[in-house]
Amino acid sequence: MQVSPSPSPACWSCHAATDGAHFCPACGKIQPLASADYFAFFGLPQRLQLDADDLERRYLSLSWKLHPDNFVRADQFERDLSLELSSQLNDAYRTLRDPVSRVEYLLARLGVRKEGQTRQQAPPELLEEVFELNESLEELHMAREAGGDGDETAELRRRLEEAGRGFEKKLADVDAELAAASRDLDAAMDGARDPLLARLNEILNRRSYIRNLVANVARELQEGEPA
Amino acid sequence: MAYSDKVIDHYKNPRNVGSMPKSDPQVGTGMVGAPECGDVMRLQIKVNPETQVIEDAKFKTFGCGSAIASSSLATEWVKGKTVEDALQIKNTDIVRELSLPPVKIHCSVLAEDAIKAAIGDWKRKRAESESQPEASTAAAQGD
Ligand code: FES
Description:
The structure holds two protein chains of two kinds.
Chain A: H1 38-41, H2 52-66, H3 76-97, H4 99-109, H5 124-145, H6 150-187, H7 193-221
Helix pairs in contact in A: 2-3, 4-7, 5-6, 5-7, 6-7
Chain B: H1 5-12, E1 27-34, E2 39-47, E3 54-62, H2 65-78, H3 83-86, H4 91-98, H5 105-131
Antiparallel strand pairs in B: 1-2, 2-3
Bound molecules: FE2/S2 (inorganic) cluster.
Residues 34, 37, 39, 63-64, 66-67, 104, 107, 110 of chain B line the site of FE2/S2 (inorganic) cluster.
C-alpha cells in the first residue's frame, strides 16, 4: 500500500505550499506522495513519447534523493516516506521505461483497458495462425517426450525456428504500429483521443498473442517445459 | 493459485479433446482468443440438420487450466442440447460450476464466446448452402 495522496499540497512540517513536489521547497522535508500517477511522479506530462535518457536522469536523481540511507537519522515518519517513495519510484520507472508497459499503464489509468472487459476478438487469421503454431509446438514437445527419432525432431525444430522468425518479425511490426499510434495520441487534441486510445488497445491485444508465441517458441527451442 | 477440484478434474481428464473436419457442412467451428493473456481456444460442434441438436462437440485449448476446464465443461454441456438452448449457456454458469476466482473469469468468457462462435459458423454455413442449392456461379462472393 502507498501513502494516500495528501489532501492539500502543503508541507506537513512547515505548511508551505509544496505544489506536489517530493521535497518541500521551503524547508526541504520529504513529502507524502502527492499523486498516484507515475508520470506525475517524475514531473512529466501524460505523454507516451518520452526521452529515455531524460527519464533515466530523473530516475537516478530521485533515487539518490529519496534513498533510505539519507534518512537514517530522520524520524520514523520520514524514514517510512523514504521507503514508500523509493518503492513507488522503482515501480514507476520500470513501468514507464518500457514503451509497451507505458501504453498499458496509460490505458489502464484512463479506464480504457480493464481486466476481463476486453471482448473484442483478434482477427480470425491471427487466431488461426496462433493456433497452428501452438499445435506445432505441442507436436515438437510430444516428439521430444517420446524420445522420437532424430529426423522427425529435426524437421519439427526447423519448422519451429521458421515460425519463430515469422513471429518475431510480426512482433517488430506490431511494435512499430504501437510507436506510430503513440505519436498520434500525443499529437491529438482532446476531442480526437478516444479512437486513438481504442486503436492502441487493439494493438496491445494483438501484441499479447504474438508475444506469447515468441516466448513459447523460444522456450520450446531451448527444450524447456511448456507452461 | 488454488484450483477447485472440478477444475483439476477437467484439466487432468479433459472431455472431448480433438477436432472435426471444418469443411463438414454439419460442423461449426469457433476460434476465439483472450487478449488479456494471449490464450486461444477452438470449439467445434456437430449439429443434426433435422433436429438442430448438437450431437458431438470437440475442443482444443492452448491456455491456462481454467480455460481448459471451461472449454471441456462447455463441450459436455452443449452435447444433446439444441443450438438455441446451447446459446443460453452463460460464462457465469461456468464460473459457478467450476468455482472460478475473479481473475479467471475471462477464461470462462472465452468458453462462452467459443460456443457462440461455433454456432455462428454453423448457421452461416447453413444459410450459405440454403441460398445456393446447386453449385452456383455466385459461390465466390465475399462475406
Ligand atoms: S489465463 Fe488466459 S484463458 Fe485463462
